[in-house]
Structures are given as C-alpha cells and as structure tokens.
Design a protein that fits this description.
By secondary structure, the protein is of the alpha/beta class. It has helices at residues 2-12, 19-26, 41-45, 55-67, 90-96, 112-122, 145-152, 156-172, 195-208, 224-236, 255-264, 292-301, 310-323, 331-348; strands at residues 36-39, 72-73, 76-77, 107-108, 136-142, 176-182, 212-217, 244-248, 269-272. Bound molecules: 3-hydroxy-3-methylglutaryl-coenzyme A.
Amino acid sequence: MLRQSLRRLVADQRGTACSQIRRGLATVAGQRNFVKIVEVSPRDGLQNEKAIVPTETKVKLVNWLLKAGVSVVEAGSFVSPKWVPQMADTPQVIQEMQIKSGVSYPVLVPNAKGLDTLLSILSSDSWATRQKPTDEIAIFTAATESFTKANTNCTIAESLERLSQVTQRARDNQLKVRGYISVVAGCPYEGAVDAKRVGQIAKELLQMGCYEVSLGDTVGVATPPEMIAVLDACVQAGVPVDALAAHCHDTFGMGLANVLTMVRAGVRTVDSSVGGLGGCPYSPGATGNIDTESVVYALHKEGYETGIDLSEAARIGDWISNAIGRLNSSNAGRAIIARERLQKEKAKL
Ligand SMILES: CC(C)(COP(=O)([O-])OP(=O)([O-])OC[C@H]1O[C@@H](n2cnc3c(N)ncnc32)[C@H](O)[C@@H]1OP(=O)([O-])[O-])[C@@H](O)C(=O)NCCC(=O)NCCSC(=O)C[C@@](C)(O)CC(=O)[O-]
C-alpha cells in the first residue's frame, strides 16, 4: 500500500520517476535499513538563540548526545561572530567535548578564514597523543541568489568558487567535506525554487569534493511531492541517492512527512535536532529542524535502525529546551517524558 502510493507520488513528479529512486523504494522493507542521523542541535539548533548559551551547556549537549548513540554530531561553526555570535565559542566547544571513536563531529566552515582557524586548532600539539576533535567540515551554499547574499554575502557563483577552494584545502588536510544547499524547495525572499538548479548545484558540490550533499528545506515550506521533485532533479543531474541527505525544518508541520518520504525513496541520511531546536538567522519566521525524537520514533516503527536510544534522546531534548528557556517542541519527546514520569509514579505506589 505504502509502496504503491510512493510509486504514484514519484511517478506524478513531471513523469520523470527515475530508476535510482525506484531502487530506493525497493529497499523499503529490507536490506539497507540503517538510517544515519546527523544530529545538528549543537549548531543549527542553537545558532539562532539570541541569549548566548554557555559553552559548558553546549559541551554537555554534545557529550550527552554521544551517550544516546548518535554517530554524527554537528558540533558548531567557524563563521564570522559578527554574523552569528552564538557560534563564537565553537573553538572552545570542540576542544572541551568528549571525542568518541567512530563518531564524526562536522563543523560549518564558510570561507578560508574559518578553515584557517580550524586548521590551527587541529595542528596544536595537544592532539599529539589523543584523537583530534574533528575530521570533517560542512560547507554551505543556497539555491537562490537572495538567500546566498543574505547568508554569506555573495552570489551563488562566488560562493561555489570560494567553497571549491575551501574544499580543496580541507581535503589536502585530510578533512572530509559535507555540502549543504539551503532553500531547496522555497526561499523566504524569492518564493518558488527551480529544482533543476538544486540538482546542478548538488552536482557541483560533489564534483568539487563533497562526499555528501544535504538538501535543506530551510524555511520548512516543502511538501513530500516537492521534496521528491528535488530528489528527482538531483538524481537526474547525476547525483546518487546515496550521496544525499534530507534536512527538513518543521515550520508548516511537514518535516516528518518530508523526511519519511525521502527515506522511503532511498535517502539514508537525515539531519535532525533534539527538541526540534533550530532556525536559520537568515530565514525569517522559519522554525526548528525536525526533531530527532519524532524521526527516530517513526523510523524505528517502520523497521529502520538508527543506533539511537529514543528515551535518552527525549531526555536530552527536554533538558536542552529547559536549559535555554524554550518549550520542548518535540511531540514524541514530550510524550516519552510524560510516559516515563507516569511509570515512575506508578512504581512508587
Ligand atoms: C561568509 C561570511 C564570513 C562573509 O561575511 P563578510 O562580511 O562578507 O566577510 P568579510 O570577509 O568581509 O569579513 C567581515 C568580518 O568578519 C570576519 N570574518 C570573516 N569570516 C570569518 C570567519 N570564518 N570566522 C571569523 N571571522 C570571520 C572578518 O575577519 C571581518 O572582521 P573585521 O575585519 O570586520 O573585524 C559571513 O557571511 C558568515 O559568516 N556567514 C555565515 C552565516 C551563517 O552562519 N548562517 C547560518 C549557517 S547556514 C544554515 O543555517 C543553513 C543550513 C546549513 O543549516 C541548512 C539549511 O537549513 O538550509
């Protein structure tokens, strides 16, 4: 039933249902059932908070996420503190957080200056006898000129040129590079976005050396058919489904539907944030990322594995929401916390 409706959904997209997406559908019940969760709360989740979150809270967040079984934690960003003051302490965070073998800790890098700062930290003698805090950066561009200008003060072409140099140097220094494209299905300044343009940019990011491209519905306006159209355009441009990730914000409550649709279509990497924290400073009105708790709950129910302890994720989401004075916006998280409280009360009787 599910597979039938997905097939219909994909086929509806301009009649261009592609073989890679169909292959993704064929795996729904089976073999490739591990979905990698990229936990973005320490960066995307916190970057938009007006009050500066103490460094120790950020470090505790990363460390607790490790205990929950997360294998990729976006630890912060090396962007201009004039643009995003909340991320100014990323150098401290990555030097104080626990480093667990097998876990990746990508950090956002927008330009040569950000990479210089990261490389100087990584070249410190203090790592001579222990594992370096990260072996991965994330670079970012966008599918519209207005958003690229607002977010990184340049045109798309200039941003790709700049990022190509950053990528080359990062790889020369044994750093893996993940790419982001923002506003793939709707822009706060320009409205509708051409999916083909997203496909071309995704291809350019792969060609410059990114191992993965995360498709960002930054504004949280996309619906499942629109995300499938973006996926389809990327595949048509020559980008394998395996190299794509879904990064969905939940502004219109479509985040989980979008993520599940992308996973059912073959995508195996999903970005999410405990407590549904998040928002982009240059996407007015956009709310947080889709919450990790709902994503993990739904994926586990559908038979996928994530390696994440759902109860632990719910506790972290609840704690960090309280710690920064926000309501916990994860429905699944709140439900799990309430259930656990009830069980504890029952046990006392
Ligand atoms: C790209 C720039 C730097 C251009 O900004 P600019 O103003 O054009 O840069 P500039 O080169 O003219 O430098 C201006 C000042 O910033 C400093 N500077 C310059 N670069 C750095 C750096 N790396 N680290 C520290 N300082 C830096 C530089 O030294 C200078 O300082 P001054 O001389 O005036 O004292 C700026 O636009 C920027 O930092 N943008 C980042 C904005 C950002 O972080 N946005 C959120 C992340 S993206 C996102 O959330 C979307 C995503 C990824 O989640 C996916 C999705 O949901 O869509």
